[in-house]
Structures are given as structure tokens and as C-alpha cells.
Amino acid sequence: MKKLNAVTVYLIFQGGWSFFFGLVVTVNMVYQAVTVGLNPLQLVLVGTALELSAAIFEVPTGVIADLHGRRLSVIIGTALTGVGFIIEGSFPVWGMVMLGQAVWGFGWTFISGALDAWIADEVGTERAGRAYLRGSQVGQIMGLAAILPSVLLASVAITGPIVLGGALFIALAVFLFLFMPEEGFQPAARGSRLSWSHMRETLRQGIRLVRLRPVLLALLLVGLFYGAYSEGFDRLWTAFLLREHTLPGIGDLQPVVWFGLIRAVSSVLSIGATELVKRRLALGQRRSLSRALLLFYGLVAAGTVAYALSDSVAAALAAYWVVVTARSTAGPVMVAWLNQHIDSRVRATVLSMSAQADEIGQIAGGPVIGAIGTVVSLRAALAISGLLLLPALGLLRGQSRAALEPLAEAPAAD
Fold first, then answer.
1. pTM for the full model?
2. If we measure between CA atoms, which residue out of 367, 286, 391, 270 comes closest to residue 326?
3. Closest CA to 147 of 270, 35, 245, 291
4. How far is residue 384 CA from its own chain's centroid?
């Protein structure tokens, strides 16, 4: 069967992933906080199960993607993500929710790094930067489109969108198996592909590149602090809004409708901000990218603290929208900046190392923030989450100053 154009498949993947994921996440935190009845610490521990699974397998699956092919890795990860959501939505019990999240985390490690490396190899790093931003926009539009059907399904049965989303992820994996090309990837020789020593060598080259280029080490540390921040915010913002504020009534509709509306506004703002960045930001200039990241992460930190200290629904929503808009815009910019510093041979491995740093930060910071939310207050937990980003801002400021320096040569294979 004839394969499709790589950019077309990338955009279809981003759109499909975001639509199916939107079906799930529009109601997922309400499902966990209300239907399953999890407290702040349990909410964060669910996320810890996800991140622990991802952290354990992140780099090994990245190495596998560099050796066996990014296409196969993405297909496996997409199918496992679907299985994880089906498990979570089918059994509204804390243990099964944690299992479902762990399976999803395992699946995500096959995609993390591999997808970005795949499109970069298929179209080149220059075109890939624009593809990342365009894919982000397509994803935002499809995520917006998923909100209404998610809310309507959840009004009948709150588990409906979660299980349906999982089934659609499996269908997306089948589509990728049939139509996803892979022409830019050069696999290792067959004997090497089956060799653990070759896997170790690929990982070693990735580590050497990080050590040779301080900017990569700084970005890994940024990911570490960002992960420590994000786990608390992502898992507790819904509970905070439900328990610390009183949402205005919307007729006889359930509270999940409010979260659909909040997500819809978030999507519109993110789409606009990403388009502005795509038009105005010089994607080929490291200094422009570093300054943009410093701005976006600064807005995330300030918005998170403002959200924690909000005394009204309006103030909380305004701060929340600042946070999610800055975060969604920063994502593709960070990937574009990373790709400018990574040799193609170890691209998926180094990108997986970046994702693993984020996951380790979430594992380390999440339970602490969850415990603070349970023992002290949700306000204190969210405020401390925002402050955890301050070291990342310092690192980004330093890299902005160093962005004019030439890059060190990539390590040659032994």
C-alpha cells in the first residue's frame, strides 16, 4: 500500500492524537477527582505512576527507535496509549486508574523523541521547525473540536469519552501502520540492531553529545525543574477550582460543562499565540528561540502563582489561561531549539533523555506537592509549584546569553 507524504502523516497524527486525547482529558481530571474520589495526594500519585513508567522506559525506547526505526516505535506507543485509557475508563478504582496511567506512560515513551526525530529525518531540521508549529496548531484545533463531543458523552456517562478515546488511539495506530513512511531513517546493520552493545553505544554517544554541549545539559535541567512544577499544577488545578471556588451554575448542566468551556477558551488562545510565534519568531536563530522560551516560562511561573492566590473564579480563570497558553506555545519552540543542537544519529535518544529529565522531575516533585495539598492546602501546593520554575528561568537566561557562541562539534562514532 502506498505511503503518504511525511508532513501529511505528521499533521494527521497530531490532529488525531489531539482530538482523541481531547476526548479523554476534557473530563479525565473531573472523573478522577469526583467519580473515583481521589484526594490531592492520590491525584498526584496517579500521575507519578504515569511518569515512573515513562522514566523507566524513556531512554531504552529512544535507543530502540534510533536502532530499529522511529515509525515502528510511534505505532507501538500509539496503540499502548489507547489500551491505557481503556483500562482507566473501564474501572473507576484508584488502583486501576494508576495501572491505566502506567500503561499510557509506557506507550508514550515509544513516541517521545521518536516522532520528532522521524519528521526531522524525513524533511530536514529546517522544515521540521515549521512542521512542529503547524502540527501544534492542527493539534490545538482538533483538541478544540473534541471538547463538545466529550462533554456531551460525559453528560450521559463520564467514562464514555475516556473509553472511546482509547479505542480511537488504537485505530490511529492501524492507520500509521498502513500509511506512515520512513525513508530518511538509516537503520543499523542487522547484526548491530540485535546487539545490546550497539544500543549501549548509541546511548553513550547521546550522553557524550550532552556533555560536549553545555546547552543540552542546561535544557535537561530545565526539563527537570519544569517536570517538578508541572505535575502539581496539572493534577491539582481542577480540584482547586472545584473546592476553592464556586463555579456559576449553567442551568441543570453538570460541572464538566464548565471544564469543557475552559478548555475551549484555552484552545482558541493557544492557536492564536502559536500562529503569532510562527509568523514572528526566527526559528533558525538560537538566540531568538532562547529568549522566547525565557518569556514563556516566566509567564507560566507568574500565572501559576497568580492562580494559587486567586480570590475569584474570574481571576483564577485569567491566570489559568495565561499558564496554558504560554505552555502550549513553548512546547514546539523547545523542540525546535533542542533539534538545532543534536546530531541526527542520536536525535531520538537525546530527545528521550530530555523527556526523561521532565519525568524524573515530576516523580520527585509531584508527591511532595500532593502531600502539601493534602496536609496544608491546595493554594500552598500550587504556589510552591510555580516557584519551582525559578531555577529553570535562571538556566534559560544563561543560555540566552550564550546562544551566540558556536556549537562544539558532535562526537564521532568510535
1. 0.71
2. 270
3. 270
4. 21
Task: Single out the residue of 180, 179, 174, 168 nearest to residue 115, CA to CA.
Answer: 180
pLDDT for residue 142 is more than 60: yes
d(CA 90, CA 117): 34
CB 189 within 8 A of CB 370: no
Closest CA to 10 of 185, 172, 187: 172
CB burial class (10 A; 0-12, 13-18, 19+) of residue 4? middle
Q: Which three cell numbers stand for residue 39?
A: 484526594
Strand segments, DSSP code E, in 363-403 are: none
Cα–Cα distance, 166 to 25 (Å, whole number)? 11
**Residue in the block written with cell 486525547:** 21
CATH topology for the 6-184+191-402 domain: Growth Hormone; Chain: A; (1.20.1250)
Give the span between the Cα atoms of 356 and 227, in whole angstroms.
Answer: 9
Q: What is the pLDDT of residues 48-103, one digit of tens each?
A: 888 788 777 766 666 677 677 788 889 999 999 999 999 999 999 999 999 999 99
Residue 23's identity, in one-letter code, is: L
Task: Name the more confident of 73 and 288.
Answer: 73
